[in-house]
Amino acid sequence: MPVNEGYQANKLFTDLFPETTGNNVNGLGEETVRQPSPFFWHPADRHEFGDLQHEVVGYHRRAEEITAHYTPDAPRGPKTIQKSETVVEKSAEEWSAAVKAFTLAHEGDLVGITPMDPLYVYEGYELNDPWIIVIGVSMDHELLNKAPATVEEPDAGVEVAKQYNRAARVSRELTNYILSQGHYAKAWAGPFASALSMMPAAIQAGLGQLGKHGSLINGTYGSSFRLSAVTTDMPLIADSPVDIGAEDFCASCQICTKACPPDAIFEEKQMVRGVEKWFVDFNKCIPYFGETLGCAICIARCPWSRPGTAPKLAAKMLARRASKEQRNDG
Ligand code: SF4
Ligand code: SF4
Questions:
Q1: How far, in Å, is the centroid of ligand 1 from the Cα of 229?
Q2: 165 inside domain
Q3: What's 229's DSSP letter?
Q4: What is the mean pLDDT of residues 38-64?
Q5: Pick from 293, 3, 71, 307: which is nearest to 160 by CA?
Q6: pLDDT tens digits, residue range 245-287?
Q7: Atom 2 in ligand 1: which residue has the minimum CA distance?
Q8: Number of folded domains in the chain?
Q9: SS3 content of the chain, % helix, strand, coil (to 5)
Q10: Given the CA of residue 255, which atom of ligand 1 is nearest to it?
Q11: Per-residue confidence at 2, pLDDT binned at 50, 70, 90?
């Protein structure tokens, strides 16, 4: 029997579904490319799921060990400093190397750079900074893999909250570094959403590929990491998207689809706002996500997330593809 057979969504959450579905808001089935619409984790008055979001956040608050990390006293890094009036001039290559070295020396584990694209900005927001520096911080997989969390055993949720704070600290430290050099910078960090949609920018900046579970897969940490970002006008050099073979792997893997209790992960790619991609059914996911204080089963059970596994899987997948191409050429 599949793990997910027989799951009943909690009425506490489903009773608050608005007329539309999360899949409609996210653009499932739409053939035209467009900006994403503000949705969950945006201010509640910016989308139709505000009441449900409020309930999910309230449910989270029962787990004090988790919410202790989401208070105003949480260690989310320094306050923003004034931009220096002295502009330090360096080449784009030098600045790119400098911001990457700074990030990795200040609690960051991953960093990549991509130019701004209007498709990374949620509808109704204005964001014209030319560059995005995307930051990744790894999670403790042993703790993450305790998902799903409960009020009594909140370890996975605590780890997620801690790493959101670490990601925030890295982005704020980097922002202040750039401001101290006389260039504009602004920090962006979750879990609450804002103008910037970080995941597509992270893909473009080379931090990973989109997995079937709707999250990124990175060649070192799998899906066991969180994102933050800094936008800036500092001259920089763009990184490129990576191919670690995750697409091929997901095409024949069903670990997350079978592990997801509410059966929310589509087995096949879907057309979403004009792009064919992996997709998660929001209305199926969110009640379970709500009652398990952030769920995370899919990213925890993804084989790429097991420590030390992602580089081996990437090497295997790329070697397999190369040998297939060689056979086809011969
Ligand atoms: S569990 Fe399997 S199918 Fe799901 S994202 Fe990971 S590799 Fe892809
Ligand atoms: S977060 Fe949980 S409920 Fe949502 S898709 Fe992943 S496994 Fe399924």
A1: 25
A2: yes
A3: E
A4: 92
A5: 293
A6: 999 999 999 999 999 999 999 999 999 999 999 999 999 999 9
A7: 253
A8: 1
A9: 40, 15, 45
A10: 1
A11: very low
Q: Identify the DSSP state of 28.
A: B
Decide if 99 contacts 178 (C-beta within 8 A). yes
Predicted structure pTM score: 0.96
Reading phi first (left if > 0) and then psi (alpha if -120 to 50, else beta), residue 313 is in: alpha
Domain region containing 213: 11-329
CA of 112 relative to ligand 2 center, distance in Å: 27
What residues are paired with 132 via a beta bridge? Answer: 114, 231
Question: What is the per-residue pLDDT across 179-196, written as a single tens digit (0 to 9) for each?
Answer: 999 999 999 999 988 999
> pLDDT-based confidence at 221, cuts 50/70/90?
very high
Residue 3 lies in a domain: no
Residue nearest to atom 8 of ligand 1 (CA): 250
**What residues does ligand 1 touch, defined as CB less than 6 Å away?**
211-213, 249-250, 253, 255-256, 302-304
pLDDT at 71: 86
Q: Is 10 exposed, middle or buried (0-12, 13-18, 19+ CB in 10 A)?
A: middle
Neighbours of 11 (CB within 10 A): 9
Task: Judge contact between 171 and 77, C-beta under 8 A.
Answer: yes
- The chain-wide mean pLDDT, for the chain, equals 95
Q: Assess whether the C-beta atom of 265 lies below 6 angstroms from ligand 2.
A: yes
